[in-house]
């Protein structure tokens, strides 16, 4: 497949040049009725643990940067489902439903560009494309898909969204009738920084105040408006608005950014060069592409608290110090950042017509890079520490993506970080639907962190879509990084221990930000008061590390703390010493679980946003990790998972989903009290084992009985009548604290005896004291 770059989402787009550019193939652009295909949303052929329609919509929404309390509603608002799609949330999603909603999520404007059409994209066309491009097999339209299989389809979604359906070299432009087009011989002098132009007499006499014209300058297309006539063919200039220039502007293309582009932007004469190794002949592949090792961006604080930025060519090791010295307003110590960049690719799409205005715009980046560094700083640099920038011309230089690069530390303490994430990310605007964001992780991320205190460290790519070097259309801020919380403990023998909890990779996206400007001008999106901020949590994984610096200076990551020295005063007297090994319950109920090295304690966080909420604690062993966290004033979700894939969820929220009686399918469960937790809320709580044994429909006489149904363990009030509901959340699974709170294992038919022991021990450790 031809490599395409990235980014974009929809808008209704008239593509006149698409077919001529060789974009499309194989699918008719004739308008079809949206009712000309009958895709059943509910799977006919299913297997255990196939994904439901609602869970699929949640995955799809999260993939496209949409987070919501109600994902069905969110999917409808974003056009992924319509009123004609008939399904219940707990129906098993068919392959046809998965394919159709995926194709709709591509965005109609994007697909119109690909198909070279201005017609609405019918359901039939979407399904044909999904099959033709191997998003889904034709014989799988009626089948269900497991959670893992659904993730595989979303990976294919990424490949198509950022590849096949991203056409290159699309360009259709027409200027307004009153816009003059100057030739190079019409221009005697142009001072870009002063915004002044001097024209030949013949060209000057045809222009007056308020007129708009376009011309070529250093390979770029530039548009300006006459401000004042200064005499002798000289005019002061103003930046026009898009409606002053274009009748039609349709562009779709991509470009790469390398070290030469950044140096060229600042000017080689302004860059301090330190020679590296002699330049050797670089290897090329059969297509003639050079195999470059990329470049590194290094930033360090000098004695005057100024940030100095240096580029290093990884092929020749030549260093280029940029004319960028940023005075930091907070004192930094030991500030040293290295950003290794293998490649930066940018893409842009835009459709503007005088009749409909800005219908569609998209911008984004595809980066393969690694960041590492040491920082000692107190404070928050959430606005970012600027490193460098460069424009990337797109297509025939009608538009450009101006890319600014930042480091964004939020730190209290000293940090050493290394993180590697190849990713693609983008922001798009569609008239009538606002802005949307997409973020994709192209491979696994590796991290290593030594920390004291709390930190968040990101690198930010801030691309802005600009046309005619004067009209900024769409801005974006795309952050990738890691967060860590470390507790540092000094030992009497000189050993230093740090318990570090890492959450990575963390992606953040924003657009319509007033602080992001091009030549001191806000983007069109910002002036339209259209903005968005979101965080992509689905990629993030939590990891707990124990890091030690031994007395001899040795540094090591270990599973358990190696310090075991006790002073004589701390050693138990012989009469006090126990000869029996502690039980699992005794370990969990101990107050020194972190010291033991075998358990970790989780502290819930909603009280940080809603002080009335009770703060809870629970313990989990080393083979469990936190895989998902989300918290605000209204909702908190935490999921921990063991090596066997078994999950326990803690949740607190406003609505009483635990007593939802809706839906057409009802589950009934057998229930047994197996233990009690440490927490006592005033009403007795018990740990209950629930096992599904019957499923029936409210709308039909069908009854399904399980010989060995899914099994879960949950905290429940002792007074609750235990039964099942259509959502699979048992009615007794909540208690008020004052939010609705639940703590339970996810239903599973694969629990081992070891899983059950660990689940019960974790639920028993639930408490409101550290």
From TrEMBL:
Keywords: Signal. Residues 578-591 have a biased composition (Polar residues). This is Uncharacterized protein. Residues 1-20 form the signal peptide. It comes from the Bacteria. It comes from Lachnospira hominis. Residues 563-596 are annotated as: Disordered.
């Amino acid at each position: 497949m031809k490599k395409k770059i990235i980014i974009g989402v929809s808008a209704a787009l008239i593509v006149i040049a698409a077919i001529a550019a060789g974009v499309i193939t194989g699918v008719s652009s004739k308008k079809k009725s949206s009712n000309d295909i009958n895709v059943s949303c509910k799977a006919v052929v299913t297997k255990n643990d196939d994904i439901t329609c609602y869970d699929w919509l949640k995955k799809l929404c999260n993939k496209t940067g949409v987070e919501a309390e109600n994902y069905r509603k969110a999917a409808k608002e974003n056009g992924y489902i319509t009123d004609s799609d008939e399904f219940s949330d707990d129906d098993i999603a068919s392959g046809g439903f998965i394919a159709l909603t995926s194709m709709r999520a591509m965005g109609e404007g994007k697909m119109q560009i690909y198909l070279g059409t201005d017609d609405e994209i019918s359901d039939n066309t979407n399904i044909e494309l999904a099959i033709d491009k191997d998003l889904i097999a034709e014989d799988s339209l009626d089948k269900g898909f497991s959670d893992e299989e659904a993730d595989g389809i979303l990976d294919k979604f990424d490949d198509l969204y950022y590849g096949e359906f991203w056409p290159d070299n699309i360009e259709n432009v027409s200027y307004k009738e009153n816009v003059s087009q100057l030739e190079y011989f019409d221009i005697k002098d142009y001072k870009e920084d002063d915004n002044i132009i001097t024209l030949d007499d013949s060209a000057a006499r045809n222009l007056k105040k308020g007129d708009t014209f376009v011309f070529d300058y250093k390979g770029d297309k530039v548009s300006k408006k006459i401000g004042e006539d200064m005499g002798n063919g000289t005019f002061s200039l103003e930046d026009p608005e898009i409606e002053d220039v274009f009748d039609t502007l349709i562009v779709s293309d991509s470009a790469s950014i390398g070290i030469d582009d950044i140096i060229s932007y600042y000017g080689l004469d302004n860059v301090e060069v330190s020679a590296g190794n002699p330049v050797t002949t670089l290897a090329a592949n059969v297509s003639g592409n050079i195999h470059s090792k990329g470049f590194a961006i290094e930033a360090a604080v000098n004695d005057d608290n100024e940030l100095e930025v240096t580029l290093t060519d990884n092929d020749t090791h030549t260093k280029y110090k940029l004319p960028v010295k940023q005075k930091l307003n907070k004192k930094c110590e030991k500030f040293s950042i290295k950003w290794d960049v293998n490649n930066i690719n940018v893409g842009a799409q835009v459709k503007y017509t005088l009749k409909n205005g800005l219908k569609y715009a998209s911008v984004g980046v595809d980066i393969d890079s690694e960041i590492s560094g040491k920082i000692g700083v107190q404070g928050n640099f959430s606005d970012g520490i600027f490193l460098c920038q460069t424009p990337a011309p797109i297509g025939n230089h009608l538009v450009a993506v101006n890319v600014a690069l930042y480091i964004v530390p939020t730190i209290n303490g000293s940090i050493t970080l290394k993180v590697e994430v190849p990713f693609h990310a983008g922001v798009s605007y569609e008239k009538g639907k606002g802005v949307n964001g997409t973020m994709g992780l192209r491979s696994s991320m590796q991290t290593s962190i030594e920390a004291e205190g709390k930190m968040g460290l990101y690198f930010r790519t801030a691309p802005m879509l600009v046309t005619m070097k004067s009209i900024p259309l769409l801005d974006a801020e795309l952050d990738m990084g890691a967060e860590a919380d470390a507790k540092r403990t000094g030992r009497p023998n000189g050993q230093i221990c740090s318990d570090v909890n890492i959450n990575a990779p963390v992606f953040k996206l924003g657009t319509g930000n007033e602080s992001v400007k091009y030549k001191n001008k806000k983007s069109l999106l910002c002036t339209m008061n259209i903005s968005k901020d979101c965080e992509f949590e689905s990629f993030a994984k939590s990891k707990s590390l124990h890091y030690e610096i031994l007395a001899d200076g040795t540094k090591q990551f270990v599973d358990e703390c190696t310090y075991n020295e006790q002073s004589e005063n701390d050693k138990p007297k012989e009469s006090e010493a126990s000869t029996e090994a502690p039980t699992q319950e005794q370990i969990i109920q101990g107050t020194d679980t972190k010291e033991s090295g075998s358990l970790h304690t989780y502290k819930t966080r909603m009280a940080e946003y809603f002080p009335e909420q009770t703060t809870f604690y629970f313990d989990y062993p080393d083979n469990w990790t936190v895989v998902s966290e989300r918290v605000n004033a209204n909702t908190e979700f935490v999921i921990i998972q063991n090596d066997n894939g078994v999950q326990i969820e803690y949740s607190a929220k406003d609505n009483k989903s635990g007593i939802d009686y809706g839906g057409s399918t009802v589950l009934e469960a057998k229930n047994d009290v197996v233990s009690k937790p440490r927490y006592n809320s005033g009403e007795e709580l018990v740990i209950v084992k629930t096992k599904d044994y019957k499923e029936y429909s409210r709308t039909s006489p069908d009854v399904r009985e399980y010989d060995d149904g899914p099994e879960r363990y949950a905290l429940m009030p002792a007074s609750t009548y235990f039964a099942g509901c259509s959502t699979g959340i048992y009615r007794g699974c909540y208690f008020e604290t004052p939010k609705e709170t639940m703590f339970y294992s996810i239903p599973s038919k694969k629990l081992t005896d070891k899983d059950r022991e660990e689940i019960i021990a974790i639920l028993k450790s639930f408490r409101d004291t550290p």
